[in-house]
Specification:
single chain; alpha+beta; 2 domains; 7 helices
């Protein structure tokens, strides 16, 4: 399925927010943003850079601004998408189509586009060094082929696996997580591949 087909399928899907996301799309298309499809939802870009996305969930729908932290937010509506995890992304949530202030949303979208044009974006901080937990290190040392496959994964995917094991408090949990990820490493897939666009 092409990106265009995925976008059309996203907006055609029957759910309680179908009309609401259609309105948001209509507004996004009034800007100079280009419509694309990433992470299973429509993303609007400028010069290849992500500016905003339109999402629908079980309890709300809305617009994600990738560098929303830099928006002036005169209406005070933006929320941190995932407190503690995202530094720049901000979300404007809606519970119904009637809540959409079209002029307001369009102004926010236009400001986000203008900021992108000016290059206003959060620059990534220094890359964290990945510390391989002892349990994973021991497993890799015992299986050379697995060690090679782990080495071929992107640093991001390696870090995901390492953090997944390190975050476990109990030894039993670490062991069960290790058993879960070893076949994934062998196949070259990561913990969150299912959430990323193909």
């Amino acid at each position: 399925m092409s990106a265009t087909e995925k976008i059309e399928a996203f907006y055609a899907r029957e759910h309680q927010y179908k009309k609401g996301i259609a309105v948001l799309r209509e507004l996004a298309l009034k800007t100079e943003l280009e419509e694309s499809y990433k992470w299973n939802f429509p993303v609007y870009t400028y010069d290849g850079k992500n500016v905003l996305g339109i999402c629908a969930f079980k309890s709300h729908f809305g617009v994600w601004f990738f560098n929303g932290v830099f928006l002036s937010d005169p209406k005070g509506v933006l929320e941190n998408a995932q407190e503690g995890k995202t530094k720049a992304m901000r979300h404007w949530k809606f519970l119904s189509e009637n809540e959409i202030d079209k002029a307001g949303v369009l102004a926010y979208m236009q400001e986000a586009l203008d900021n992108q044009r000016k290059g206003i974006a959060l620059s990534p901080g220094p890359k964290k060094e990945t510390v391989v937990p002892e349990a994973l290190s021991n497993a890799l040392d015992k299986d050379n082929e697995l060690k090679v496959r782990f080495g071929k994964l992107t640093p991001y995917k390696q870090r995901e696996f390492c953090e997944y094991i390190s975050e476990a408090k109990q030894e039993k949990t670490k062991q069960s997580r290790l058993e879960k990820i070893l076949p994934m490493i062998a196949q070259g897939i990561s913990l969150n591949d299912k959430y990323r666009s193909s």
